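Q: Could you fold this chain for me?
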Amino acid sequence: MSPELVAEFDAWVERVTSNCGASVAAFGFLLYEHEDSFAVQLVGAARYVDSDPFGSEVLCSSGEDLLDLPRTTVGPEWQQGLAAATQLVRSYLARRARGGPFDGSTVAVGFVDGDMKVLQSAATPNSSLHRT
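A: Sure. Below is the predicted structure, expressed as structure tokens.
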């Protein structure tokens, strides 16, 4: 992964999450397939529900402010787009987990119309996250 893409991802995450409140207990990195890229949208919800993750109770969102992962950089296949997004999120969590916007939250990544993979579960059983 190029250092430029990592820096762009980090800045985008910081910008988007600065508008999210403390009541966000779950974050989702939702991928979309475009012709020349994979686009990532970040949403925050009051809870993570396995049957309908991020389908309701969305409290914050990057909206139309999507991060593009060019196919020329990450690869042309959907598996490569998903792998690149997952790597960016895992790297961010490893570097900025403590005290960062995702501290104590569930974090998931996946295609908007597909299965979500939970990369981090809520830190404590007494958190405001409700898994159903």
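A (continued): The chain has a mean pLDDT of 86.
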